[in-house]
C-alpha cells in the first residue's frame, strides 16, 4: 500500500441522488494494488445532516469540482451532536498519477 496524497474540498452528500447536506472533506488516498485507488478520512457537515446520512448504504459525495465519490461512513455509532465522521471512499477517486503530493 502506498500513500498517494490528500484530497480536500467541499461538496454535497447525497443519498439515492437526493441532497442530504453540504460537507467539507479531507481524504488520504492509497494505491492498494496496480490500478486500485482507495481513500479514507473525515467528512464534516452540520450535525443534523450528518446524523441523517450516517449508516446509509446509498451515499455519494458530489464534490464542488465535479467528482462523484462513493462514500461509506466507517463507524458504527455517532454522537447526536457530532459534526465529523470517518469515511471510506471506494469509487470516483482520481487516478494514481492525478493525486497531489
Per-chain topology:
Blueprint: E1 2-15, E2 18-33, E3 36-44, H1 47-53, E4 59-63, E5 68-73, E6 84-91
Overall description:
The protein has 101 residues and is mainly beta. It has one helix and six strands, in the order βββαβββ. A six-stranded antiparallel β-barrel has the order 1-2-3-6-5-4. A hairpin with a 4-residue loop joins β4 and β5 (68-73). The protein is globular, with a radius of gyration of 13 Å. The chain starts with a strand and ends in a 10-residue tail after the last strand.
Q: Biggest sheet, strands in spatial order?
A: 1-2-3-6-5-4
Shape summary: globular
- What is the overall number of helices? 1
Distance between the termini: 15 Å
Oligomer: single chain
List SSEs in N-to-C order. Answer: EEEHEEE
The poorly predicted ranges are none
User: Level of helix content?
Assistant: under 10%
In brief:
With 101 residues, the protein is mainly β. The chain has one helix and six strands; from the N terminus they run E-E-E-H-E-E-E.
Using brief descriptors, characterize the structure shown.
six-stranded antiparallel barrel; 101 residues; 1 helix; mainly beta
Amino acid at each position: 500500500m502506498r500513500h498517494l496524497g490528500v484530497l480536500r474540498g467541499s461538496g454535497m452528500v447525497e443519498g439515492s441522488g437526493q441532497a442530504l447536506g453540504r460537507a467539507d472533506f479531507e481524504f488520504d488516498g492509497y494505491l492498494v494494488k496496480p490500478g486500485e485507488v482507495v481513500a479514507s478520512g473525515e467528512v464534516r457537515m452540520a450535525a443534523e445532516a450528518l446524523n441523517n446520512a450516517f449508516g446509509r448504504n446509498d451515499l455519494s459525495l458530489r464534490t464542488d469540482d465535479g467528482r462523484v465519490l462513493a462514500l461509506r461512513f466507517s463507524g458504527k455509532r455517532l454522537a447526536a451532536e457530532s459534526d465529523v465522521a470517518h469515511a471510506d471512499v471506494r469509487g470516483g477517486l482520481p487516478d494514481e498519477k492525478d493525486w497531489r503530493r
